[in-house]
Amino acid sequence: MNLKQKAPSFLTLAMALCISTLNAQVSGSSDRDKLLMSVSWYQQSAEMTALYYQGFNIARQRLDEAVSANKTGKPLAVVVDIDETMLNNSPFEATLIKNDDNLSGWYDWTKKASAKALPGALEFANYSKEMKVDIFYITNRDDNERTVTLKNLREEGFPYATEDHLLTKSDLSYSSGNTSSKTGRRAKVAENHSIILLIGDNLNDFSEIFEDRNADKAKDAVQKNQELFGQKFIILPNPMYGAWEKPLYDYKEGISDADKTLLLKSKLKTQ
Ligand SMILES: [Mg+2]
Predict the structure, then answer these.
(1) What does the pLDDT look like over 199-211, one tens digit per residue?
(2) What is the CA(77)–ligand 1 centre distance, in A?
(3) What is the 100 CA–ligand 1 centroid distance (Å)?
(4) Domain boundaries along the sequence of the chain
(5) In angstroms, rounded to a whole number, what is the distance separating the alpha carbons of residues 267 and 270?
(6) In the chain, at which end, N or C, are there fewer CB atoms within 10 A of the end residue's CB?
(7) If you measure from the C-alpha of residue 7 to the centroid of ligand 1, how many angstroms do you get, rounded to a whole number?
(8) What per-residue string of b and e applies to 152-164 under the rule 16 or more CB within 10 Å gives b?
(9) Per CATH, is 52-265 categorized as 3.40.50.1000?
(10) Ligand 1 centre and the CA of 81: distance in Å?
């Protein structure tokens, strides 16, 4: 086969690729495309940085108030989530986009123990230690990630990065069969400490009252407890992933990108 005979084949292939790309655009963008803007905002926007500082500045004020008001003598504690609360895993999300990969590389990422502290997180944690308020890290990372997680926290300079201050996913059996729920672990901390503040990027980091996401129930729970935000609960921004995602797709697993896009569009409010 000479080059002249080959040329139409290349052209045909190129056209097929164009059509396939066009089809993808028409039928709906992929999960990676949807993640692109979220990760870009998280990594590039000054607003993201400002929101983290805002959250930790408020946390510091609340900590001061709680220390002054404490007359119980019971040790005080702050409960913090780790991922997208104290440590920044957006490089992992960026890698997913660049490699068009799924979540299979998560353990490779945590094994590196190279996630950086988020803006204000380290300063707050060190201030908490200075004020003699314990920090407990309650995370849904797995038990087999404990060593690398403590290593990462220590290398970033976080205090209380010790076995007895880290509660991973399998540390306790949990209520209502929900292994992701942090309720049991919060109760464990509360046995010997007064929890003055909870900090996280997911409402489930605060209370089980937010865990049911059906039919706007979490939104209703937020509205009913609005006075707690900026008081006992400090929420930080994470547009990349979270418990808010599954309801967007009606909890359907394994649906196509096109169907996901259709569902998202069907829920848009235009007024
Ligand atoms: Mg988190």
Answers:
(1) 999 999 999 999 9
(2) 19
(3) 23
(4) 52-265
(5) 9
(6) C
(7) 52
(8) bbeebebbbbeee
(9) yes
(10) 6
